[in-house]
Structure formats: structure tokens, C-alpha cells
Design brief:
Elements: E1 4-13, E2 16-26, E3 31-35, H1 42-50, E4 56-61, E5 64-65, H2 70-75, E6 78-81, H3 93-100, H4 106-119, H5 121-125, H6 136-148, E7 154-158, H7 166-181, E8 185-190, H8 193-199, E9 202-207, E10 210-216, H9 217-222, H10 224-230
Parallel strand pairs: 3-8, 3-9, 6-7, 7-8
Antiparallel strand pairs: 1-2, 1-4, 4-5, 9-10
Helix pairs in contact: 3-6
The structure holds adenosine-5'-triphosphate and magnesium ion.
Length: 234
């Protein structure tokens, strides 16, 4: 049984259809990446999976129709880290994290917080700092940590590498790769195909609102079309 199964997903903004019947299934315990150029529809696909934008088609989560509301999906263990991060800049690092755990009890939150401070020592050092004053890499870590406060089963990650220096990209994606071993499954959207293919198990290439190619990351990294368009020819 797939953890998440998207079938014939279509999304329109006004009259313009931007996802034209996307099929994608992912098994539990995997990192699955969707790569593709600007405007391909990657963010729209994650937003449809989370219920942030309306879609037609079928979304099964653990073999059953996904709850209709975003809140219901969060309660079922899904969590989206959006491209915009959506942190509260005038609140502290710690208070931003607490918001991520709003569905959890105080003791679950305390446990999750301790766990996350081990994983993100830099956030622990800066827990009283206002989120608006963090560096780009720290903001991305906070967005991830806040999502993890909800103890998700399925993390939908939209471009965690966006705007970050290569060294920080490697650090963030290293943390994402480690999450898999803690039982979190990850659907990772990336323009940085090279970095995404390094940590994922499977990859899908999205172009103009359709999945054009799918395979293991090894197969995709060896596919001449992927290499030429997305890996810079080598
Ligand atoms: N709210 C919206 N209203 C109208 N059109 C939209 C809206 N959001 C996205 N689009 C359009 O839908 C298409 C897909 O956008 P989407 O953000 O999903 O692409 P993307 O693959 O995530 O791109 P990027 O890599 O730049 O983030 C684009 O043509 C975009 O302009
Ligand atoms: Mg996007």
C-alpha cells in the first residue's frame, strides 16, 4: 500500500489548468523528489496534496481518501513546509516552534522540542532570537523544525535549498536524509536537481504540469534528457 497516492490530479487557477492529470505514488519510508524548472507546477502539486489549493482527481493517504481539510491532513500526519517558509518574524525561534506543535500535548511538545534541539543545535543557541533576524539557512532550519514539532509521518518539502549557499544546502539536505531513518517519509520538491537526486530514493521530472519521467534516482541521474536539461550537461 502506498503512503500517498495521487491519481489524475488536476489544478486550475481561473481558466488556466496548470496540472494536467498527475499520477504519483510513494511508499512509506522513502524520499521521493519532484524536480523541474520554474513554473512546472511543483509547488501546485504539493499544495494540492496538502489541500491548500483545490484539485480534482483522487488523493489516497494510507490507502484511504485523504481528509478534506488542511487541518484534517495535519492531524492525519501530513505537514507542508511551503516555499515561503511563513515564519512569524516578530516571534522567537522557540515560539515559532511551539506553533508547529499545536495539536500535540504539552509533554509531547517538550519531548519533540528536546529532540529537535539535539538535531538543530543552532536553533537551540538562538531559541530566544526573533525569527525575523535569522539567516536564510537558519530560517530554513526553523521552518523544518517547526514542521517536525507536529511529529509528521509525511513531510512535503518545497524547495528547502532555495536561496541558500551550497554548503548550507548540503547541511539542510543532510538533515532531510537523516529524517528518513526516524520514520518520516518525504516528498521533496526541488529545482536543485543535483542535490535532490543525491538524497532521494526515487525521482519524477515535471514539465509543464505533467510528470514526464520517473525512476530511481540512479536511473534519472543517468537519463540523458535529465542530464542535459537539469544537471548542466554533466
Ligand atoms: N495563485 C495562482 N494564480 C494563478 N496562477 C498561478 C498561481 N500559482 C501558480 N500559478 C501558475 O501556475 C504555474 C505553476 O506554478 P508553480 O508555482 O506550481 O510552479 P513551480 O514548479 O513550483 O515553480 P518554481 O520552481 O518557480 O517554484 C505557473 O505558471 C504559475 O504562474
Ligand atoms: Mg515552486
Amino acid at each position: 500500500m502506498s503512503l500517498l497516492q495521487l491519481s489524475d490530479i488536476r489544478v486550475s487557477y481561473g481558466k488556466a489548468e496548470v496540472l494536467h492529470g498527475v499520477d504519483l505514488a510513494m511508499a512509506e519510508g522513502r524520499i521521493v523528489t519532484v524536480i523541474g524548472a520554474n513554473g512546472a507546477g511543483k509547488t501546485t502539486l504539493l499544495n494540492a496534496a496538502m489541500g491548500v489549493v483545490p484539485s480534482s482527481g483522487t488523493i489516497l493517504y494510507r490507502g484511504k481518501p485523504v481528509p478534506p481539510s488542511v487541518e484534517g491532513r495535519v492531524a492525519a500526519g501530513m505537514c507542508l513546509v511551503s516555499e515561503k517558509r511563513e515564519l512569524f518574524g516578530s516571534m522567537s525561534v522557540e515560539d515559532n516552534m511551539e506553533l508547529g506543535g499545536f495539536l500535540r500535548s504539552a509533554s509531547e511538545r517538550a519531548e519533540a522540542r528536546a529532540d529537535l534541539y539535539d538535531r538543530f543545535p543552532r536553533l537551540k543557541e538562538r531559541r530566544k532570537q526573533l525569527a525575523g533576524t535569522l539567516s536564510g539557512g537558519e530560517r530554513q532550519m526553523l521552518a523544518l523544525a517547526r514542521a517536525l514539532m507536529s511529529r509528521p509521518k509525511l513531510l512535503l518539502l518545497d524547495e528547502p535549498s532555495l536561496g541558500l549557499a551550497p554548503k548550507i544546502v548540503a547541511e539542510i539536505l543532510g538533515i532531510v536524509a537523516e529524517l528518513r531513518s526516524t520514520g518520516v517519509s518525504i516528498l521533496l520538491v526541488e529545482q536543485n536537481a543535483r542535490a535532490a537526486l543525491e538524497i532521494a530514493d526515487e525521482a519524477h521530472l515535471m514539465e509543464l504540469g505533467e510528470i514526464r519521467r520517473s525512476g530511481s534516482t540512479d536511473e534519472m541521474a543517468a537519463d540523458p534528457a535529465v542530464v542535459e536539461a537539469y544537471l548542466g550537461g554533466g
